[in-house]
């Protein structure tokens, strides 16, 4: 923009009058990184593209932005937090319809104002007879105070001094004495700043809770130990369950050395708790971590462990009881791209639950005292171990100051709206406008999609969560950030924010429902063109291959890899493939059928590792293998195949307890041709659309040994359109055999095998329609509504190098009324 500084300022000031809920903060300068955002409105779908490019002339940069990457929805203080780098769209009408009435409203109550300083706040219950109150303190004054629940006092700031310490930093709480009341464990004598820490400080003590007489005298201190720059600590049972242990986490390893490795210390409760001069300790790691700012404690397999936010990103530190050693597993590397500052990695972390998944997502602040809000979303089951996590950037608050620091300081997860899913809050210390608390709600984890509201304008150093007014809804409390050498809020205060959510909750309906129908599973699904969120539902695993029913909303995407094979049931998926080096990139697409009487692979070679959807969305069956398929998958005894019902635990018990097995077909069909034949059937799975119960398809599995003729038939009594997907081709030669015309007569005594056309189906291939198709691309029907087919069969091949090797295939029986071929599809050999 080649304009004068004054004209730019006038332009921006005018823009600030356009809408009451959109306000710009700006900085005009030269030689700054330039972010160019392109917005395109395509029939109500907002798409964004982000570009970085240099500029030499004066221009506008979003120095401070309420949300630099977002979709704006016309609801006050509301925006849709977008995942970066992936760009996706969502319909305005859908968003307003389902979330327009969702109101994360909190009523603010002042607990104390005009404080000397502010840093730490934590919900604390003195004993089981007293309402939950607060512990609050700042680093400069060092006054550790207990604030009773506001409902028990009419005087704001009516606090009890329980101890005074030199520059206290972090605390935790636990019943150290075993008397039923929590004590406080706290570190202090920090020093002036991170770099200028006290070489003789970093002391840890525990403060003994006197019970109801807390206002009579200061709480008694018991010394634990020390390490310079002690910044965070956690109390729990990290290696055993008999005695308390404290993990101490300094922020840096040495005073005046920002890049020194940080020692992690484990203090163990001594035999003589009250008279011990210190707790015995060991350094469990002093090489891996640098600049540790925060940690999240969690309990897995009865032992506590930590998620640590440091320069290395997010890492899980836990004690392996079998190996009797400490383990570190990486979750993500954090923010590594802000080259203008010395801080990298992560600075804050928590863990969000969604439904029965305790480890659904991890929100993070990145890097140390950072401006980036990101989430890590796992790609596998409800587990931390050996998982993969994808990072999405939700927000970038402002720009680092001259010290490389930004406003974000703390975040915390909790279920505020009682829908079973955790939301999370982010504390911004300031200055304005990046000051306050933001509320994020997960919308679609598969796409890193969250909704966002600002719920407080007050400076927040930390947030604590509890039900302070005993109404069964979680509230939160904050303390202002006021620390010399960093940021000092003008009027440091403590506030409680009471949860006053609107009664109308957002729809929590899943896109896929499942129920037991006789001995089958019946899935009821949203129509993919109306789906609002991605959902994947694994339902069966056969010999290590997991089958999932998935719905992908319109204008969305899904990751694919070499172990993923996709069968489309409804809608359309698209991708670009440059794997054939001799050709230009090919724009590929797939519907519920491939070309008539051909075969097509279910594997997808996508340049960006994703498939996308258009207006139709897509309903899919996804096959996931444990390993990449490099050789024939062999099954020599179908009775030994491991078959597992894979439905998640939050689905109805009767559906999860339904067993599946291959049953030899002669138990269903007594005809002589099937007697003792190595031919098996596994039933079955139906899919109906939820809006009007319209039937889409029925799915069942079949297995046949070498050389087996699975029976010649022409569906004379069936009204469905049938597609076969080969899961395992045991000989490499099995597939569909069919007569060329539906008018050809089949006689089992006189029709030779040579009369059949042969379509070999390798593993994870499907074939196109065998049924007759009319000029309107519809199935040809008999007068009774049955579908016209030529005679056909599955014929297993023979591999003489092995005694037995089964074919396994899945049959999709589509509703003929929904089986009109796409108009663009070629119809070779059409039978009219």
Explain the overall architecture.
The chain is an all-beta fold and 832 residues long. Among the domains are: 115-290, no CATH class; 512-818, Jelly Rolls (Sandwich). It has 3 helices and 56 strands. Strands 38, 39, 45, 48, 49, 50, 51, 54 and 56 form a 9-stranded mixed sheet that branches.
Give the helix tally. Answer: 3
Which residues form runs of ≥5 with pLDDT under 50? 30-100, 503-508, 826-832
Q: Compute the gyration radius: what is it?
A: 32 Å
At the fold tier of CATH, the topology name of the domain at 512-818 is Jelly Rolls
| Backbone structural class | mainly beta
CATH architecture heading of the domain at 512-818: Sandwich
Report the major sheet.
Answer: 9 strands, mixed
Helicity, as a percent range: under 10%
Overall CATH class of the domain at 512-818: Mainly Beta
What best-fitting shape do the alpha-carbon axes yield?
A: elongated
Question: Key features?
Answer:
832 residues; mainly beta; Jelly Rolls; 9-stranded mixed β-sheet; 7-stranded antiparallel β-sheet; 3 helices; 56 strands; 42% strand; disordered C terminus
Q: What is the fold's blueprint, element by element?
A:
Elements: H1 5-15, E1 25-29, E2 34-42, E3 45-53, E4 59-64, E5 70-72, E6 78-81, H2 92-99, E7 106-112, E8 120-124, E9 133-137, E10 143-147, E11 160-164, E12 171-174, E13 183-188, E14 203-208, E15 220-226, E16 230-236, E17 245-250, E18 264-268, E19 281-285, E20 294-300, E21 303-310, E22 313-320, E23 325-332, E24 348-349, E25 352-354, E26 357-366, E27 372-378, E28 389-396, E29 408-414, E30 423-429, E31 435-444, E32 449-456, E33 462-466, E34 475-479, E35 482-483, E36 487-488, E37 494-499, E38 512-517, E39 520-525, E40 535-542, E41 545-552, E42 557-559, E43 564-577, E44 586-590, E45 599-601, E46 610-624, E47 643-645, H3 653-656, E48 663-664, E49 679-689, E50 695-704, E51 720-728, E52 735-738, E53 757-760, E54 765-767, E55 792-795, E56 807-815
Parallel strand pairs: 39-49
Antiparallel strand pairs: 1-4, 2-3, 5-6, 6-32, 7-37, 8-9, 9-10, 10-11, 12-13, 13-14, 14-15, 16-17, 17-18, 18-19, 20-21, 21-22, 22-23, 24-26, 25-26, 26-27, 27-28, 29-30, 30-31, 31-32, 33-34, 34-37, 35-36, 38-39, 40-41, 40-47, 41-46, 42-46, 43-44, 43-46, 45-54, 48-49, 49-50, 50-56, 51-54, 51-56, ...
